[in-house]
Amino acid sequence: MCGITAYKGKGDASFVVMEALKKLEYRGYDSWGIASLGAEGIIETVKNVGKISSHTETGLRQSSVAIGHTRWATHGGVSERNTHPHFDCGNEIAVIHNGIIENFDELRRELGGRGHEFRSETDTEVIAHLIEEFSSLGLKEAVRKAMERVKGRSAVIAIKKGYDGFVAARTGSPLIVGIGENEYFVSSDIPAFLDHTKNVMYLDDDEMVVVEKKPVFYSLKSGGLVEKRLITIDWSADQAEKGEFEHFMIKEIMEQKDTILRAINQNDSEIQKIANEINSSFGTFFTGCGTAGKVCFTGQYIFSKIANKHVNYVNSSEFPNYEHFLRPETLLITVSQSGETADVLEAVKTAKKKGVKIISLVNVKGSTLDRQSDHTFLINAGPEKAVASTKATTAQLAILYLLAYATTGKIHEGKNLLLETASKVNDMLNPRYLARIEELAKIICKKSDIYIIGRGLNYPMALESAIKVQEVSYIHGHGFAGGELKHGPLALIEKGTPCIVLTAKDDVFPQIIGNAMEVKARGGYIIGIGPEKHGVFDYWIKTPDVREASPIVNIIPVQLLAYYLGVLRGCEIDYPRNLAKSVTVQ
Ligand code: F6R
What we know:
α14 (459-473) links the parallel β20 and β21. This protein is 34% helix and 21% strand. It has helices at residues 13-24, 104-113, 125-133, 139-149, 248-254, 256-264, 268-280, 290-307, 342-353, 368-372, 391-407, 411-428, 431-444, 459-473, 509-521, 550-568, and strands at residues 3-8, 31-37, 43-49, 65-71, 86-87, 93-99, 154-160, 166-170, 176-179, 184-187, 199-202, 207-211, 215-219, 231-232, 284-288, 312-315, 331-336, 357-362, 375-378, 449-454, 476-481, 498-502, 525-530, 539-542. By secondary structure, the protein is α/β, with parallel strands linked by helices. The chain folds into 3 domains: 3-239, Aminohydrolase, N-terminal nucleophile (Ntn) domain (Glutamine Phosphoribosylpyrophosphate, subunit 1, domain 1, 4-Layer Sandwich), CATH 3.60.20; 242-428, Glucose-6-phosphate isomerase like protein, domain 1 (Rossmann fold, 3-Layer(aba) Sandwich), CATH 3.40.50; 430-586, Rossmann fold (3-Layer(aba) Sandwich). The termini are close together. The chain has an 8-stranded antiparallel sheet, with helices on one face. The protein has a 6-stranded antiparallel sheet with strand order 5-6-7-8-12-13. Strands 16-15-17-18-19 form a 5-stranded parallel sheet, sandwiched between helices. The structure holds fructose -6-phosphate. Fructose -6-phosphate binds at residues 289-292, 336-338, 341, 344, 388-389, 467, 471, 582-583. The site of fructose -6-phosphate has 15 residues, from α8 and α14.
């Protein structure tokens, strides 16, 4: 996590970097810092605990080179001392870093033994001291040698007193180079520089870039030159802004009026080709983390229901434990908004070792996952900035439906269902609907627990609902399969405990209503979500009847409820505490 960025060019470098950090704040917002190369080649620094959004000036002098960092603490608490950039002993080398240095204890002891003095508790600081040890070789070689010693996934940017440029290296965490007109950017994510350029080059693992006059790429292992492809991004800077909305989250929820349609605008023959591969594979695995993982879990039900086909869902962090079931004929389908989630990339590594083909559903074009996959379906949701995933979720689900229908040779039937669903989502997201959900949020916003139950296709969405409630409102949300309640969780129900019941017009409707009754009999406050009203509901939120596609329409009111609960409880909607949008550490 953490966002890092660097700039060299004609603009006021530290100001450009400050504005870029504001766009990266979703990656970490504990503290921020900038170092710039002043006129005499001297490094000037500013560091602050807290968010960068309210700052309008850096206080640093105008310069043409600067680096900046917005932190999500891993090693060392949130303090000015631990805020990046970190320095070598002589304050001549400044380093920013995103990732985790696995052998940092060992390196710190070793460097300490050679007389290096540490001024922070971070793992990052060892890099500055390692670069210092090799600094007679020049910054490029010094960074390369330093990175040879460092284990784990990282992205690092360094500047040095008197050196008119910067050096960046990647060993696992994302780094993208933006190519402007006589100005160059390096950043953990594209929105950082979208205002300036849409032309990018991606650093791959074990590569570095030296930006002196213009970017030159090298292999970290051999030090030899590497050729890179220029990619033009089709996102606009506006898409990454809040516009008329108060928060990115509500903007992104409302965008689902369009994003489901955009997601299904796929090349039918590609969908059919992958569907055929699913049919002939020796087992298909779906993997992802958090919300994307819950999409994969829904995929298991979608394939069962629509295609009568068994696929396996495994959470990415657990995927290496399934290594023994993989064969070259196995297929791995990964789902990830960012395409940078470390556990997903690790799952891909595990699968590739066994010769498994990788198919991915990704939102960020050119992301590591996109580049490492044999085939990618871009979900086309546009930039998703709020930490809580919303529009990416429904777009990913839509593509899984297409694939499932295509395995039965009925892709057009699937497309029609999704067209109908998209149009009903458009109707649903109206001001009256939002007001009804806000009214519910007012009724339950003081509660400390919310339970969510579902069955069949809506069981994984009960788990996803819990994630939304937890991260946006900080209320303890917990999702269960309806049938599991009486095997333990029912003991938690007290008078007035809210329980959301996800329903559809399907064959498990009588059972889920039965579960709702069990909760009600213990005093629970029942919130029904679904197309049909029932007497057991204390509060009902209607969703359209879209048959098998019910998970898509049922999750949207929960996203809205989590949003209004968060607003009423004064939470940081787009930047929940302790979380970051892109989880690039395992
Ligand atoms: C929750 C949320 C996270 C992500 C997870 C995976 O709302 O957004 O649980 O789903 O961190 O991220 P991606 O999809 O980027 O791999």
